[in-house]
Amino acid sequence: MAKETFHNLSNEKKERILSAAKQEFEQHPLQHATVKAIIETANISRGSFYQYFDDLEDCYFTTIRHYTVNMHQVFQQLYQRHQHNLKKTLKEYGDVIKEEFYSQNLRDLYRSYYLSWTLKGTDNPMEDIEIELERVRFISTIIHSVIERSFIENWSKDTFSQIYTMHAKWLIEGVSESLRKKGR
């Protein structure tokens, strides 16, 4: 998380720095982004950058938190709101994803984030997890995969909606049940 020095800046300066970082992270995944590009766009010195952030990764996650929504958290909140009704949750979650990920001012940032995302380094250890939480993680992984493919394959909003709906149906009914209904 950004250092206290960053939080003490004027809102205008913070926004200028985050906007420059957003621009860099939209164009390059974290492993290819540079501090140099951010400081040049933001018109700040390298020394100032390191007064605000520990490193490029700190800047990246600060930028992600500032501009985006934690979609896994959204799913869990919807799941709770719909009293663990998977069908209602998945329907509303698909609508939230469509609106959030197809927002033109954030699409490239989400693309960079999702295409560089891995399970390594998450804070969620697998041991001693309740079955319900594990089920939510399983569903989140499936949905994450659909989102990731939408960026890799450059789907339209309609294509995303069709494929998301198909995957949600499989999660609710089961893949074999859906195939049986179609006579396969």
UniProtKB/TrEMBL annotation:
Keyword Secreted included in the entry's annotation: no
GO function term, MF aspect, one: DNA binding
DNA-binding region of this protein: 34-53
All residue ranges annotated as the HTH tetR-type domain in the record: 11-71
Domain of life, source organism: Bacteria
Keyword Nucleotidyltransferase: no
One Pfam family recorded for the sequence: TetR-C_39
Gene3D superfamilies on file: Tetracycline Repressor, domain 2 (1.10.357.10)
Keywords, comma-separated and alphabetical: DNA-binding
Classification via InterPro entries: Homeodomain-like_sf, HTH-type_Tx_Regulator, HTH_TetR, TetR_YgfC-like_C
PANTHER family: ACREF/ENVCD OPERON REPRESSOR-RELATED (PTHR43479), ACREF_ENVCD OPERON REPRESSOR-RELATED (PTHR43479:SF11)
Name listed for the protein in its UniProt record: TetR/AcrR family transcriptional regulator
Organism (species): Dolosicoccus paucivorans
